[in-house]
Amino acid sequence: MASADDLTFHEFEEATNLLAETPDAATTSRSDQLTPQGHVAVAVGSGGSYGAEDEVEEESDKAALLQEQQQQPGFWTFSYYQSFFDVDTSQVLNRIKGSLLPWPGHNFVRHHLRNRPDLYGPFWICATLAFVLAVTGNLTLVLAQRRDPSIHYSPQFHKVTVAGISIYCYAWLVPLALWGFLRWRKGVRERMGPYTFLETVCVYGYSLFVFIPMVVLWLIPVPWLQWLFGALALGLSATGLVFTLWPVVREDTRLVAMVLLSAVVLLHALLAVGCKLYFFQSLPPENVAPPPQITSLPSNIALPPTLPQSMPPS
């Protein structure tokens, strides 16, 4: 008859062999987990400990449920807009880099925004672009006056207002119209899933960043070089918009998709050309001093005789 020590030895040997065959198995050596006969319990699992995973999933579900139950602040409160400015510098720089380097199949919304659109980047990009437009437009006249002293320069402060209104209206009204059209087409084509309004505004805001260095390069007084820089900047910005909008509009008919993308590119081109012609236009006539004109009297008009000089008294 085998002794208790021999039975225990065989049980541990069986457990060792089982662990060698299944590396993911786990042994429980606590006294409260022993079998009624005193045997060692061996828990075998293919994916590790299921209990820990279930606890993690349960906690994540509770956190998501609590987040959904939290009352969302109204759009008239400051806390509603505070979340759209909650970004750090690395995120903004990453999104700017994504707008400068468009790539086929690389969706700006999916790869950079990731369901977290911000208004911080678009707001300051539009403000910087408007300021740079007004300043460089005035600097163009200053440099022209240095080359030609006959040009009279006076500061044109109204360009700051014109630039700000133009840029901010474009960055908000065009995305609003585009978002409304895509929402309407979603009712016609159920497979379409348009971006949110804030995502559309964010895409347009970051797409304007490339115009800032373009405007600075427009200070070079070479017309064909200015148009070349404008074409390159317009190509990069419009390409990024097309690559971002294509996954949404491709679910629609081919005609609607082509017309919509053409309208997006055309409006972008009108913005660039309008800035070039207004802020960097040739000097108006009132800023150029007219050349001095020498008027000659008709030949039939007799000149008055010169008075003789009086002789000093001797």
UniProtKB/TrEMBL annotation:
> Which residues are listed as membrane-spanning?
119-142, 162-182, 203-221, 227-248, 255-279
Q: What domain of life?
A: Eukaryota
UniProt keyword list: Membrane, Transmembrane, Transmembrane helix
Q: Indicate yes or no for the key word Kinase.
A: no
* InterPro entries per UniProt: Yip1_dom (IPR006977), Yip5/YIPF1/YIPF2 (IPR039765)
Membrane association type: Multi-pass membrane protein
One of the entry's Gene Ontology molecular-function terms is:
small GTPase binding
Where would I find the Yip1 domain in this sequence?
100-273
Q: Which GO terms describe its cellular component?
A: Golgi medial cisterna; Golgi membrane; Golgi trans cisterna; late endosome membrane; trans-Golgi network; transport vesicle
One Pfam family linked to the record: Yip1
Q: What's a BP term from Gene Ontology annotated to this protein?
A: vesicle-mediated transport
Q: Where does it localize?
A: Golgi apparatus membrane; Golgi apparatus, cis-Golgi network membrane; Golgi apparatus, trans-Golgi network membrane; Late endosome membrane
Identify its protein family: Belongs to the YIP1 family.
- Identify the PANTHER family for this entry: PROTEIN YIPF, PROTEIN YIPF2
Return the protein name: Protein YIPF
